[in-house]
Amino acid sequence: MTAIPLSAAPDSAAASASAATDHAPANASPGTHDGHPPQGLLPLAVGAIGVVFGDIGTSPLYSLKESFIGHHRLAVDADHIFGVLSLMFWTMTLIVTVKYVFVILRADNKGEGGSLALLALIGRQLKPGRWTAFTAILGIVATALFYGDAIITPAVSVLSAVEGLTVVHPAFADVVLPISIAILIGLFAIQSRGTAAVGKLFGPVMLVYFLVIALLGLNGIARAPEILLAVNPWYAVKFFTLDPLLAFLALGSVVLAVTGAEALYADMGHFGRRAIMVAWLWVAFPCLLINYAGQSALLLRNPAMVENPFFLMAPDWARLPLVILATLATVIASQAVISGAFSVSQQAVQLGFLPRIRILHTSASAAGQVYVPLVNWVLLAMVILLVLAFRTSSNLASAYGIAVTGTMFITACMLGVLTFAVWKWHPLVAGLVTGTFLVIDGAYFASNATKIPDGGWFPLLVAAITFTALTTWATGRRILRERLAEDAMPFDLFLGSVCERVRRVKGTAVFMASTVEGIPPALLHNLKHNHILHERVVILTVMTAGVPHVPDHKRRDVEDMGHGFYRMIINSGFMDEADIPAELAAETRAGGPFKPMETSYFLARQTLIASKRPGMAIWREKLFAWMVRNSESPMQFFRLPTNRVIELGSQLEI
User: pLDDT for 459-500, tens place per residue?
Assistant: First the structure.
């Protein structure tokens, strides 16, 4: 089985508690995690409505409006209204329903989804080679783009909802920005408390929201039922024949109707494929289509309503309550993407693409609920800057979409690898399916690329910085392991020439190792300076397999090396927690039970020095060294008792 390097045990980077390598042991079999809690289908579907469909559910607030009055304005006439609505219908049908619900959701990694889970799945199924290298780059790029999307989504969603106040009364225009910023600050400020309690309200609130927007849409359709003819794809084709350039540019706004589609796949581990399918096909999809049709019907009757058709569909008395409900929905949508950023960061740490960072668990019962302070406050700062810089949801819409369409296009590429190399579909079928989605997603991405000068550069800049950090860390750890291996002493040589000549003292010493070969630097440094060995010496390596969870009976491998030495390998899933004392407490094969007060943990911490040796560019080596210095202490990450840890430092050129 091929595993992705774990940055958590990692840093090898300071061999720092190095506990990871590039290959998991052969017996690190996939876990039996089923991907979602043992609940009924209906509760899971309601939960999915609240968490999975928050982003795509709030798209009606701005997507149809932006298609007409965005940076490439369209005439608000029957041909363009029918054309845009037809494009939206077929976009949601082909991209969300066919691509994600019926195809992509089949690519679950032991119940988990998302770019990194898909990357781990492919890495586990295929032998190292061109396919795995190609998909590794794609997975990292998709992850980098996600962070750009995670910054823009809260900003554009909350702004678009609060802007509804200007429909209630124009005098509210001056308070839109302050209210939006206050809501965003409050949203990020409560993240450390967890979302378990509030999360129970997400599903019911979003269910009410979907029903309300469907009722508003039905009211609009009743006044212009001919709008339903837009389901005929001919109207989309006619739009392109009428004005090919404007129709192509309009794709950049039309695709806003499916922002959040990636959440169907990313959140599969929380709710399961069936619950997400039910929630989409029976609630979200029909309600969204009805609302878009209602907005379009309103524009047929009164083109002047294009300034904000979502709120203008409602009668005067209902607009303020609708603003409040829409604001709640956008807060939920933002919460979902923020939680997603925390989850992706945790996976990136475990899989070896980010250094150890502080990760707090906010629920004693739900392992997936985490809070990452660094990510939280960086996101808040960037979101506030975005709101202040762009000021309106229309301006932000220029920056929105390119990260989403980029991720969709990458997912289509990875789907090609899956269908050809992993699922081994017939080449004609795999080629047809992959080619179709590549053409569709490529067209939307190309259209959004035209918005780069108007704001689309921002998510690309965030993605570029993130990609640099992810690849620098992964490459730096590989180089660091190679440097450490150059000076490593073979285990047999050590046992034969050194072990019997050294005084042994009572107790147990656990030495963290980044690889399963040779003697860890911490052991050699301890022997050099203290000239002693403990009666029992355990060389411990933590490995991350390409599965979300590893079952208890396959988590630990123990080998008796003789002379009181044991090599232990802890096999961890990329969503499992690293708790070494707990693992040792459950193990008796390494010379008997471990007594906490008689067990000492030895860590090696290297001070890295950038050099001209072959590896990375000097600036990247310096960046890597900085990341190592600022990474979370291995004591906290591995939950080691601070009064039983000994760190031994040295300098190392990379």
Answer: 999 999 999 999 999 999 888 888 877 767 777 777 777 777
558: part of which helix (H) or strand (E)?
strand 556-562
Contact 342, 146 (CB under 8 A): no
The answer for residues whose C-beta is within 8 angstroms of residue 128's C-beta and 6 or more apart is 2
Q: Is 524 left (phi over 0), alpha (psi -120 to 50) or beta?
A: alpha
Distances in Å between the Cα of 373 and the Cα atoms of 148, 194, 267, 338 are 18, 12, 21, 11
What band does 23 get if pLDDT is binned at 50, 70 and 90?
Answer: very low
Q: How far apart are CA 199 and CA 99, in angstroms?
A: 28
Phi, psi angles (nearest 5°) of residue 571? -90, 120
- Kindly report, residue by residue over 572-592, the tens digit of the pLDDT: 887 777 789 999 999 989 989
Exposed / middle / buried, residue 38 (Cβ in 10 Å: 0-12, 13-18, 19+): exposed
* Cβ proximity of 528 and 537 under 8 Å: no
Backbone angles phi, psi at 533, to 5 degrees: -135, 150
Mean pLDDT, residues 524-538 taken together: 88
Element (H, E) at 435: helix 427-449
Closest CA to 47 of 254, 356, 270: 270
Provide the residue type at 558 as one letter: V
Torsion of CA 573, 579, 581, 587, to 10 degrees: -20
Which helix (H) or strand (E) segment is 565 a member of?
strand 565-572
Whole-number average pLDDT of the chain: 85
Backbone angles phi, psi at 277, to 5 degrees: -60, -45
| Rounded percentage of the chain residues whose pLDDT exceeds 90 | 48
Computed from CA positions of residues 44, 189, 341, 288, in that sequence, does the dihedral angle turn out positive or negative?
Answer: positive
Task: Please provide the size of the chain in residues.
Answer: 654
Strand partners, 360: 371
- Sign of dihedral through CA atoms 509, 512, 516, 522? negative
Of the given ranges (54-58, 87-91, 341-345, 379-383), which has the lowest mean pLDDT? 341-345
Structure tokens at 469: 């950090």
| Average pLDDT of the residues in 401-408 | 89
Separation in Å, CA 215 to CA 311, 313, 376, 604: 13, 10, 36, 63
* Cα 191 to Cα 188: distance, rounded to the nearest angstrom: 5
DSSP 8-state class, residue 112: B
pLDDT in tens, 546-569: 777 888 888 899 999 888 899 999
Buried-exposed string 589-620: b where 16+ CB fall within 10 A, e elsewhere: ebbeebeeeebbbbbbbbebebeeeebbeeeb
**Side chain identity, residue 266:** A
Average pLDDT for 117-139 = 79
> What is the rounded distance in angstroms from the CA atom of residue 80 to the CA atom of residue 67?
10
H or E element in which residue 403 lies: helix 402-417
Strands 565-572 and 556-562: antiparallel
Q: How far is the C-alpha of 609 from the C-alpha of 624, rounded, in Å?
A: 10
Cα separation values, 547 from 2, 109, 244, 499, Å: 10, 6, 46, 38
CB 524 within 8 A of CB 535: no
CA distance 86 to 259: 17
Distance from chain centroid for Cα 154 = 15
Residue 177: the pLDDT is 94
